[in-house]
C-alpha cells in the first residue's frame, strides 16, 4: 500500500451537499477500478472514500463526497482540503474490483454517492473496450441527486452495451422513470439474476438489504461484489 500526499486541483458542489474532488498525487499511483483510498486524518483516524475514476484516466484521483450539514466524518475532510490544499492518502484498498476474466453481463446497483464506484468501473469498461453488457441502476431519494445522470446518458450513446436506469424514491411531479427502492426496481425488471456479475455500492444498510433480496432470488455469494460485504 502506498501513502502519498495529494494536492487539491478542483473542488465543486455537483449537487446539494455532494462534492466532487480532484486530487493530483505527488507521485505515480497504482490501483484497480472499483478500489478505494483512505484519507489519513491521524494515525488512528483513516477515512475511506471510493476512487471515482478509472486508473485508465490516471494522473488524478477523483472522489465524490456526500457531506450534509452536521456530518463531521466527511465534512472535516473537506474542511482540511479547503484549509491545507492537500491530503495524505493511503491506497489501494478493496477487493470489489471488476472481474475482467468473467464473460457474464454486469449489473451495477448503487445508491447515492455509491455511484462513484460504478463510475470508475464504467470508465474502465469503455476505455479498455470490454464490450460486456452493463446495466446501471442508480437509486436516490430525490431526482436532483442524480448529479451525473446526464453524463451517464451520454455514455449510453458511446457505449451501446450500457443501460442506465435511474430510480427515485420521492419523485417530482412529472417524473417518468422508476420509483421506489433501487433493488426493488432491479427485482421487478429481471426474472433471473443467476447469469450476472452484480456489483453493489451504497450505505451499509442498503448493501445488506440488497444482498438478502438477491439471495432470496437465487444469487450466490460468488456473483456478488461490494466493499461493504467485507464488513457486514
List the keywords.
6-stranded parallel sheet; 25% helix; 6-stranded antiparallel sheet; 34% strand; 2 domains; 12 strands; globular; alpha/beta; 5 helices; Elongation Factor Tu (Ef-tu), domain 3; 232 residues; Rossmann fold
Q: What can you tell me about this protein's structure?
A:
This protein has 2 domains: 2-93, Elongation Factor Tu (Ef-tu), domain 3; 106-230, 3-Layer(aba) Sandwich (Rossmann fold), CATH 3.40.50. Helix content is 25%, strand content 34%. The chain has 5 helices and 12 strands. The strands form 2 sheets. The protein has a 6-stranded antiparallel beta sheet, with helices on one face. It has a 6-stranded parallel beta sheet with strand order 10-9-8-7-11-12, sandwiched between helices. Strand 1 and strand 2 (18-25) form a beta hairpin. The two termini are 23 Å apart.
Structural class of the secondary structure composition?
A: alpha/beta
Helix share, percent:
25-40%
Can you count the beta strands? 12
Task: Tell me the name of the CATH class of the largest domain.
Answer: Alpha Beta
The share of residues in extended strands comes to 25-35%
CATH architecture of the largest domain: 3-Layer(aba) Sandwich
Largest sheet: 6 strands, antiparallel
Q: What is the number of helices?
A: 5
Compute the number of structural domains: 2
* SSE series: EEEEEHEEHEHEEHEHE
Distance between the termini: 23 Å
Q: Which runs of at least 5 residues are low in confidence (pLDDT < 50)?
A: none
- Overall, the morphology is globular
CATH topology of the largest domain: Rossmann fold
Trace the largest sheet across and list its strands: 4-3-6-1-2-5
Gyration radius, rounded: 17 Å
> Multimeric state of these chains?
single chain
Mean pLDDT: 96
What is the CATH homologous superfamily assignment of the largest domain?
Answer: Nucleotide-binding domain of ferredoxin-NADP reductase (FNR) module
Amino acid at each position: 500500500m502506498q501513502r502519498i500526499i495529494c494536492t487539491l486541483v478542483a473542488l465543486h458542489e455537483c449537487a446539494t451537499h455532494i462534492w466532487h474532488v480532484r486530487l493530483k498525487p505527488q507521485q505515480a499511483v497504482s490501483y484497480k477500478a472499483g478500489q478505494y483510498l483512505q484519507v489519513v486524518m491521524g494515525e488512528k483516524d483513516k477515512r475511506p472514500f471510493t476512487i471515482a475514476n478509472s486508473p485508465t484516466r490516471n494522473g488524478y484521483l477523483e472522489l465524490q463526497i456526500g457531506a450534509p450539514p452536521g456530518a463531521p466524518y466527511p465534512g472535516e475532510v473537506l474542511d482540511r482540503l479547503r484549509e491545507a490544499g492537500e491530503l495524505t492518502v493511503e491506497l489501494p484498498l478493496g477487493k470489489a474490483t471488476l472481474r475482467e476474466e468473467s464473460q457474464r453481463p454486469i449489473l451495477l446497483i448503487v445508491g447515492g454517492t455509491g455511484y462513484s464506484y460504478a463510475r470508475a468501473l464504467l470508465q474502465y469498461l469503455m476505455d479498455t473496450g470490454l464490450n460486456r453488457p452493463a446495466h446501471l441502476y442508480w437509486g436516490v431519494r430525490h431526482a436532483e441527486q442524480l448529479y451525473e445522470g446526464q453524463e451517464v446518458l451520454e455514455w449510453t450513446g458511446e457505449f451501446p452495451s450500457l443501460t442506465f436506469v435511474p430510480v427515485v424514491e420521492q419523485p417530482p411531479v412529472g417524473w417518468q422513470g422508476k420509483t421506489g427502492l433501487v433493488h426493488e426496481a432491479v427485482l421487478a425488471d429481471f426474472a433471473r439474476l443467476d447469469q450476472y456479475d452484480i456489483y453493489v455500492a451504497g450505505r451499509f444498510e442498503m448493501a445488506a438489504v440488497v444482498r438478502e433480496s438477491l439471495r432470496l432470488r437465487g444469487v450466490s455469494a460468488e456473483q456478488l461484489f461490494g466493499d461493504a460485504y467485507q464488513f457486514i
